[in-house]
Design a protein that fits this description.
single chain; mainly alpha; 4 helices; disordered C terminus
C-alpha cells in the first residue's frame, strides 16, 4: 500500500539521521510506472490497473515530510515524460528513456543523473568534488 511504502522510506531516512545527525538526506521521488502498452500513466493496462495515483500520493507524502524534516530534501524529475505539461489522461512515459515503462534506459539514466547532479549542486555546492569521486565521472 502507499502508506507502507512511505513509512518504510521514512523509517530508513530516520535510521540514517539517527546514526549521522549532520547528514543531508535527499529522497528521490518514485519514478513513473505504467502497465499501459503505450506508456500512458492514467490509463489501465490490459491486465493491471494504473499505479500512477499511488505513486503521486507517495511522492506527495515524501515531499511534505522533507519540507518539515531538518536534514532532508526531496527531489523529483519529469525527465521521463514525453510532455510533462499535458492533462493527466495524456501523460505518457517516453519509450526511449524507459523502454519497458519501468526501468530507465542508458539515456534515461544519463538524463536522470544530470538532474540529480543539478539538485546536489543546489544543496551542497559545486559538483566537481563528487562527480569524480574515486575517478568515476558521473553518479
Amino acid at each position: 500500500s502507499p502508506e507502507l511504502v512511505v513509512i518504510g522510506i521514512i523509517r530508513n531516512v530516520e535510521e540514517i539521521l539517527s546514526q549521522k545527525p549532520l547528514a543531508q538526506v535527499v529522497i528521490n521521488g518514485l519514478l513513473p510506472r505504467s502497465f499501459n502498452k503505450d506508456g500512458y500513466l492514467a490509463r489501465s493496462g490490459s491486465i493491471k490497473p494504473s499505479v500512477w495515483e499511488d505513486i503521486k500520493a507517495i511522492n506527495s507524502e515524501l515531499r511534505m515530510y522533507a519540507t518539515y524534516r531538518d536534514g532532508v530534501s526531496y527531489f523529483e524529475t519529469d525527465v521521463f515524460f514525453k510532455n510533462p505539461h499535458v492533462q493527466l489522461n495524456q501523460l505518457q512515459i517516453e519509450k526511449d528513456l524507459m523502454p519497458d515503462y519501468f526501468h530507465p534506459s542508458p539515456l534515461g539514466y544519463t538524463l536522470w543523473s544530470e538532474q540529480i547532479v543539478k539538485t546536489l549542486d543546489t544543496l551542497i555546492g559545486d559538483s566537481s568534488d563528487y562527480r569524480n569521486y574515486n575517478g568515476v565521472n558521473g553518479i
